[in-house]
């Protein structure tokens, strides 16, 4: 019984290109850079600024509480002092459906959206942000329902009734439609401009910012707050930000056609069977619980989280087991990142660089640290940085090529530092901000050090995730405020904002700020 399906990478790329009319003749004629935006803000040149970060927030109300709304309220006192909010992906669970934007995004973040005082009247595909919100897509923002569930659900039975259980899964009768809901919610969906005159007028109205790479989208809070593409870049106060879509370069390499490869395949197949058995046990257990009992309701929340966790493991296994699997990598995006980083290092106006995307290359959360997708993303980001290092040479003068990398996907808050990896991803600070609303998870039992071939490559400096057992269980949901200081290289003061669910009560949890 499979709850989600992940579109092929080639389909994701093709569909997203169609939605933004990638390299349309009218776009090319105007020398428009479809991977860049300029944030309309008269304070963008000030040497110090702050911004907010959230990730994996997209759950609706739990049976007894709404963690995402609690996190949103954590950020509200900081809104006046911060310039924008970065979202590290998984805006909507479980399958990125447009049906759930109202409940899982617009309602909890209503103060950030124009018309948010009446959130029920805000259409998901017509959102305008009063406060800049700059996301990247997560894997759940691309997920779809298996076709059979969609047909049955369309016949008026919600999925949870089909499954005859009490797990309140955020699933309607369709999924994201290969990321279409995310694109309509956040991207400049040029596909709607079917006639050339309409598209031309739109481009001449909103792509007026002039940069060294051509004209680009002008992001105007309260007026026009669309993103130009699924991956993009912007510069703020001398800091270059690079937003990536890691869903198109996370495909694991196929298992080798060797004796060891066959052994690995058998291990994965056995594990997949075990995962399916666990899912069935969860379904059976859920039927014995009463959602009206506070203790049992929280247990149901935990079971729903466990079910989602198992489903992600199954997706990772399926990617490795695909018999006709040919690894597809979004080389266009990775080449773009390499070239833009090289250009950034040759620009004397730039004093720092931040990259953010969904899948963390380095993480010690128990379910993600050694997934095939995690290792694939690590290898591909590493290859890009190695290529940049070969080009910029002594320009870096001993500095890491990137000052900070922000990720989600792992449902925790974590700060890691890479050691000497033997590659250009050495000595970089990596922060995972994926604990903003959905199914917190624990740190792995193997410890804080990540090894490759017995060599230490990264160490976890801070981990905030689920802890404790039974009545002592703690669920610390989190987001970040990051203060960027004057200077080159700049210092980043990271301020964790945490609200903890403990014994059915909410309380603020203090974690000391740290400087990187």
Protein traits:
516 residues; alpha/beta; Purple Acid Phosphatase, chain A, domain 2; 7-stranded mixed β-sheet; 12 helices; globular
Say how many strands there are. 18
Pattern of helices and strands: HHEEHEHEHHHHEEEEHHHEHEEEEEEEEE
Lateral arrangement of strands in the main beta sheet: 7-8-9-10-12-11-14-13
The main pleated sheet reads as: 8 strands, mixed
User: Quick one: CATH superfamily of the domain at 51-192 and 232-253 and 324-480?
Assistant: Metallo-dependent phosphatases
Which structural class should the secondary elements be placed in?
A: alpha/beta
Percentage of residues in helical conformation: 25-40%
Q: How many H/I helical runs?
A: 12
The CATH topology assignment of the domain at 51-192 and 232-253 and 324-480 is Purple Acid Phosphatase, chain A, domain 2
| Distance linking N and C termini | 45 Å
Shape: globular
CATH architecture of the domain at 51-192 and 232-253 and 324-480: 4-Layer Sandwich
What number is the mean pLDDT? 91
State the name of the first-level CATH class of the domain at 51-192 and 232-253 and 324-480: Alpha Beta
Which parts are unreliable, with pLDDT below 50 for 5 consecutive residues or more? 150-164
Could you tell me the strand content as a percent range? 15-25%
Q: Rg to the nearest angstrom?
A: 22 Å
């Amino acid at each position: 019984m499979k709850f989600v399906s992940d579109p092929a990478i080639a389909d994701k790329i093709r569909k997203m290109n169609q939605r933004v009319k990638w390299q349309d003749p009218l776009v090319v004629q105007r020398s428009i850079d479809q991977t860049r935006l300029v944030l309309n803000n008269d304070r963008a040149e000030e040497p110090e600024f702050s911004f907010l970060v959230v990730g994996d927030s997209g759950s609706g109300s739990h049976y007894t509480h709404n963690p995402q709304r609690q996190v949103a309220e954590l950020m509200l006192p900081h809104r006046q002092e911060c310039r924008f909010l970065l979202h590290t992906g998984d805006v909507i669970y479980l399958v990125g459906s447009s049906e759930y934007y109202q409940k899982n995004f617009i309602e909890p973040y209503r103060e950030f959206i124009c018309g948010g005082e009446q959130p029920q009247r805000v259409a998901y595909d017509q959102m305008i942000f009063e406060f800049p919100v700059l996301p990247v897509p997560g894997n759940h923002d691309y997920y779809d329902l298996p076709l059979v569930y969609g047909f049955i659900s369309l016949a008026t039975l919600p999925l949870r009734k089909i499954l005859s259980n009490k797990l309140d899964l955020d699933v309607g009768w369709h999924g994201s439609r290969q990321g279409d809901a995310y694109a309509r919610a956040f991207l400049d969906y040029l596909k709607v401009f079917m006639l050339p005159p309409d598209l031309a007028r739109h481009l001449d109205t909103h792509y007026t910012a002039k940069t060294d790479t051509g004209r680009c989208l002008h992001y105007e809070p309260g007026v026009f707050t669309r993103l130009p593409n699924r991956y993009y870049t912007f510069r703020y106060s001398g800091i270059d930000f690079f937003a990536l879509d890691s869903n198109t370069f996370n495909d694991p390499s196929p298992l080798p056609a060797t004796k060891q490869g066959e052994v690995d395949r058998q291990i994965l197949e056995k594990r997949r069977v075990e995962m399916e058995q666990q899912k069935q046990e969860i379904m059976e257990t859920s039927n014995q619980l009463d959602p009206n009992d506070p203790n049992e309701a929280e247990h149901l929340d935990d079971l729903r989280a466990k079910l989602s966790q198992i489903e992600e493991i199954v997706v990772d296994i399926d990617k490795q087991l695909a018999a006709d699997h040919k690894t597809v990598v979004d080389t266009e995006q990775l080449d773009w990142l390499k070239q833009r980083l090289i250009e950034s290092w040759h620009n004397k106006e730039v004093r720092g660089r931040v990259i953010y995307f969904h899948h963390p290359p380095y993480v010690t959360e128990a379910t993600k640290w050694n997934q095939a997708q995690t290792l694939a993303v690590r290898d591909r980001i590493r290859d890009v940085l190695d290529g940049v290092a070969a080009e910029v040479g002594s320009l870096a003068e001993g500095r890491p090529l990137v000052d900070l990398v922000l990720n989600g996907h792992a449902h925790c808050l974590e700060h890691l530092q890479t050691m000497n990896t033997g590659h250009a991803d050495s000595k970089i600070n990596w922060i995972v901000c994926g604990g903003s609303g959905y199914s917190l998870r624990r740190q792995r039992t193997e410890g804080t050090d990540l090894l490759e071939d017995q060599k230490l490559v990264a160490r976890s400096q801070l981990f905030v995730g689920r802890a404790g057992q039974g009545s002592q269980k703690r669920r610390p949901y989190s987001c970040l405020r990051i203060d960027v200081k004057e200077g080159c290289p700049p210092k980043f003061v990271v301020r964790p904002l945490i609200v903890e669910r403990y014994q059915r009560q909410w309380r603020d949890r203090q974690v000391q700020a740290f400087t990187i």
